[in-house]
Amino acid sequence: MTFEELMDYAISHNCSDVHITQGTHLAVRRYGELHILDELPTMEEAQQMIYAILSTDQIKRVEDGQDVDVGCVIDNNIKIRANVYHQRNNLACSIRLLMAEIPEFEALGLPEVIKELATANNGIILVTGPTGSGKTTTLSAIVDYINKNEAKHVITIEDPIEYTYPHNRCMIHQRQVGYDVPSFASALHSSLREDPDIILVGEMRDFETIAAAITAAETGHLVLSTLHTQSAAQTINRIIDGAPADMKMTIRTQFASSIKGVISQQLLPMTDGNGRVLATEIMVGTPAIKNLILEDKIQLIPGAIQSARQFGMHTLNDNLVELYQMGLISRKTALDAAYDPQELEKFLGTAVGGSSFF
């Protein structure tokens, strides 16, 4: 099997990820589940597959023992994001297949309130969730919406660049970490001198980046970014707990004043086995939410979200119940996805008249 044949197989079978490893079978991830293929390429064939997406410079870096992140478009106009690494002294590569076009809000199943958040003049919007939950696609949809509806200057800082944006109503400059700029934090600092309205930070990986992003949000910019957290409350704790002890109160105050919204999401397998559906938790930075952050009452955030649906908020459990009632996900899938399964069990029991079958 050639690299092109492997990609054709992955695309035709709606796979999200492909794994190539010297000395073992090829593998793909479809609707969240990993499948080991029968194909066992030789060491040379596996190397050729991996090198097919690398430039000469990237091949040299790999052969020098470095891990390499790659973002490119393959022959069939499919965008991919890949990481090439070494394991047991052999090469391996994980490839994420991205949508050819940036999808619309409606196609992703994103709540309408996100459009309102996207029109804010300043503050910070975070998209959170586990790896493979579609955070990058959601961020891209937000930028695409802004591009079509607002005349703004957008700077993106990514590693690697995944989606490219045409100039529509916006001017969009995209910077890749490791090529255009050495780090997320340094790019954030310099972006403040580049007259941006909106700054997209692909991922907030460390406290320096988090602090720079919050400062940018405080100084009149709208900042969009991602974190690997599973709920709004966990996101707030991650932001504040990551600060040094002598800065926690400062970060808490800054974050409370600048937060516009947190979108926590997961992609869950559908009951018919033919795809995945988006489950979300939405927190909007209302005065009540900001006060709970300031007063360090994060444990009350889920209740505050649940009681403020008029602002477009909902908890993950609310959305899981809705998806279950619509027949899109199974009871087991809902319970596995919940960060408070005991509470969800109670809601699901009410939703189906007390039944507890899977």
Protein architecture, described:
The protein is globular and about 60 Å long. It has a 7-stranded mixed β-sheet, sandwiched between helices. The protein has a 6-stranded antiparallel β-sheet with strand order 3-2-1-6-5-4. With 358 residues, the protein is of the alpha/beta class. It has 2 domains: 3-97, 2-Layer Sandwich (Beta-Lactamase); 105-314, P-loop containing nucleotide triphosphate hydrolases (Rossmann fold, 3-Layer(aba) Sandwich). A hairpin with a 5-residue loop joins strand 1 (15-21) and strand 2 (27-30). It contains 15 helices and 13 strands. Helix 13 (316-325) runs parallel beside helix 15 (341-351) and helix 14 runs antiparallel to helix 15 (341-351).
What order do the helices and strands come in, and which of them pair?
Elements: H1 3-12, E1 15-21, E2 27-30, E3 33-36, H2 43-51, H3 56-63, E4 68-73, E5 79-87, E6 90-97, H4 105-108, H5 113-118, E7 123-128, H6 135-149, E8 153-158, E9 171-176, H7 184-191, E10 198-201, H8 207-218, E11 222-227, H9 232-241, H10 248-258, E12 259-269, E13 276-284, H11 287-294, H12 301-306, H13 316-325, H14 331-337, H15 341-351
Parallel strand pairs: 7-11, 7-12, 8-9, 8-10, 10-11
Antiparallel strand pairs: 1-2, 1-6, 2-3, 4-5, 5-6, 12-13
Helix pairs in contact: 7-8, 8-10, 9-10, 10-11, 13-14, 13-15, 14-15
